[in-house]
Amino acid sequence: MSIPLTVAAQNINLNNAHAPARATENMVLTPGVKVVNDSSVVDTKVQEALSSPAAAKLALAEVNTKINTLSAPAKPSASPYKKVPLLSDVAYFGKNHKQMLDYTRQYMKGQQKRLYNMTAADRGGRYFPIIDKIMDEQQMPRELKYLAVIESALNNNAVSPVGAVGPWQFMAATARHMGLAVNKRRDDRKDWYQSTKAACKYLNYLYDQFDDWLLVIAAYNSGPRPVINAISRTGKSDYWAIKKYLPHETQNHVLAFVATATIMEQLGAYLETGLPDDFNWASLNNNAAPSVAAPVNPLLVKFSEEELKTMAMVRIKSPIDLDLLSNLLLLDRRQIGRWNYDYYDFLDNFKPGSTYNLRIPKDKLDAFIEKKDYLERQTAKLHM
């Protein structure tokens, strides 16, 4: 789901077809769970600048610094998501840290100029604030914006050979699932605001399913099915354990994302000049307690006993948007997403006659049945 980019380091290929999942997991009802069948600073510095050219230069630098500080949106204080792992998260990568370090070192050498261009005023300077604002609203990690760098080089008119379009390189079907209009008159995939909201929504669905950002990035590239199959094959749920069972392009895509995010976040000061020969990569390391929890994938973990006691299942025959559901019934979106981790399979493979056992809190069952028809109609409008 991305436009081809010229990437020299490590023969990295950033093409991404976003192959959709094509097989739906058989749903086994959990015993005991109820089932329902139902279809002033600036002015001062300007005065100082009048005294001498040197003072003017210093004052301008201070003014710019203060303006940038005042205008930069504050990051949200809390997030329901785990931190996106960067190279500095040594504990997260464990024995694979050296592999990630070697890759990032080579990626920096090969992609320094391209990544520096991404920071220009008409590229990252223009589009990163848009993405940051939307991701803050969704409480999603800002580091995910670098996915658009490797997907499209921040080009909203990018079109891949397989038909993926826009900065987030959505295929038409996936775009419609996420509520974007894709037709002869309008293509929201090219709209920065709409497509970024849709990308957050899609990343949210994938996070519901995999509960680990590297698995999410892998699924964004290949589609969920290859990742699900690799997890099923290995019985393990972290990227490094299933890596060899993923398409080669997807493996490179994940490594390129980590390298790009690490460089842009932690090595931005060296993008113009390059790293010194004696640069100490260990200076980046976070050797404290793990800042990124080890992945615990919903595909491999059963619900807790307490969750089962408070859970009801409702068999639905039409898609229901989980964001809309959570907002209307005042539900915890992260909980609903985790309980319905396999929902995107149903959505992606939906056809007349399909059913899905939607998991919701028992105390919201009556409200859901009352609002079900409305939820289905509104969801259908979103997917038109």
Overall description:
By secondary structure, this protein is mainly alpha-helical. The chain folds into two domains: 9-18 and 88-278, Lysozyme; 34-38 and 300-382, no CATH class. It contains 17 helices and three strands. The chain has helices at residues 41-49, 53-71, 90-93, 97-118, 124-137, 146-152, 172-177, 192-210, 213-222, 224-234, 239-242, 248-266, 305-310, 322-329, 333-339, 343-348, 365-382, and strands at residues 34-37, 311-316, 356-361. A three-stranded mixed β-sheet has the order 1-2-3. The longest helix is centred in the N-terminal third of the chain and has 22 residues, at 97-118. It starts with 33 loop residues before the first strand and ends with a helix. Mean pLDDT is 81; it is low at 2-35 and 37-74.
Largest sheet: 3 strands, mixed
Shape: globular
Helix and strand element order: EHHHHHHHHHHHHHEHHHEH
* Count of helical stretches: 17
Q: Quote the distance from N terminus to C terminus.
A: 21 Å
Strand neighbour order, sheet with most strands:
1-2-3
What's the topology here?
Layout (H helix, E strand, L loop, with lengths): L33 E4 L3 H9 L3 H19 L18 H4 L3 H22 L5 H14 L8 H7 L19 H6 L14 H19 L2 H10 L1 H11 L4 H4 L5 H19 L38 H6 E6 L5 H8 L3 H7 L3 H6 L7 E6 L3 H18 L2
Helix pairs in contact: 1-2, 4-12, 5-8, 6-12, 8-9, 8-15, 9-10, 9-12
